[in-house]
Amino acid sequence: SNPQVTIDGAGLSILTWQDNRSGSDYDIFAQRIDRAGQLQWTPVGKSVSSAPGQQYNPQLAAQGNSVFFTWQDRRGPDFDIYAQRFDLNGQPFWTPNGVQVAALPADQIIPQLSTDGLEGGIVAWADYHLGSGSTDLYAHRIGANGLPAGGCFRTFTQDSLSLKAVRFRTFRGIITGRPNPGNVRDSVFSR
Questions:
Q1: What angle do CA 24, 107, 19 make, to 5 degrees?
Q2: pLDDT at 172 over 80
Q3: Residue 53's closest CA among 83, 90, 80, 93?
Q4: Helix, strand or coil, per DSSP, at residue 187
Q5: CA distance linking residue 140 with residue 114, whole number of Å
Q6: Range with the lowest mean pLDDT among 32-41, 120-129, 141-150, 178-187?
Q7: Predicted confidence band at 82 (pLDDT cuts at 50, 70, 90)?
Q8: 79 near 108, Cβ under 8 Å?
Q9: What is the share, in percent, of the chain residues with pLDDT greater than 70?
Q10: Any idea which of 35-39, 81-85, 95-99, 167-171 has the lowest mean pLDDT?
Q11: Sign of CA dihedral 61, 67, 68, 73
């Protein structure tokens, strides 16, 4: 469920989705499909993350000869944000089951990403770690090597954001947020 698609540097489609084939936890899988509809990776797709616990809300973006994935992951007590990078043959560049992008107290959810033009990406998410009902938007750049590139930064603070609040518009780092309906104090905003 929750499929997402992008077009890679060769013009082929790459899909990602959350998958409950294990029967107990959702995991993240991906598949590359050529123009004739032929599967390019294994017939059942490649595992992006099959770590213990739930993995939801996968996102992906292709650049050059790779594809970058992000998702929310509950392999610990709270949802955190993870990422992975594959080559176009479906081989991971980074640690199996991905690298941790955000692991603050409380939940980090609804990741979105943009490529950075350098085979890495910028991941943004809604964050609840400050408590008291506020939802903050944070972002972090992950380099092509899977390591943080620069610090994690808070982009916005909002009492109540829509569950689809975080969006990227270009690799130049435009992050937009949208408040929940009925919250008239703010409108759509960006940084």
A1: 30
A2: no
A3: 80
A4: coil
A5: 11
A6: 178-187
A7: very high
A8: yes
A9: 78
A10: 167-171
A11: positive
Contacts of residue 100, defined as CB under 8 A and 6 or more positions apart, other chains included, come to 80, 81, 82
How many Cα neighbours within 13 Å face the side chain of 100? 11
Contact criterion met (CB below 8 Å) for 73 and 123: no
| DSSP per-residue string spanning 116-169 | -SSS-EEEEEEE-TT-TT-EEEEEEEE-TTSSB-S--EEEEEES-B-TT--EE-
CA distances from 38 to 14, 41, 42, 115, 147 (A): 12, 9, 11, 26, 34
Q: What percent of the chain has pLDDT over 90?
A: 58
Copy the structure tokens of residue 11. Answer: 């013009």
Length of the chain: 191
Sorted by sequence, the CB contacts under 8 Å of residue 37 that are 6+ apart come out as none
What number is the average pLDDT over the span 30-34? Answer: 98
* Edge-to-edge strands, sheet with 99-102: 54-63, 66-74, 80-87, 99-102
Query: Edge-to-edge strands of the sheet including 153-158?
Result: 108-115, 121-127, 135-142, 153-158
Distance separating alpha carbons of residues 112 and 153, to the nearest angstrom:
15
* 7 C-beta neighbours (distance < 10 Å), count: 10
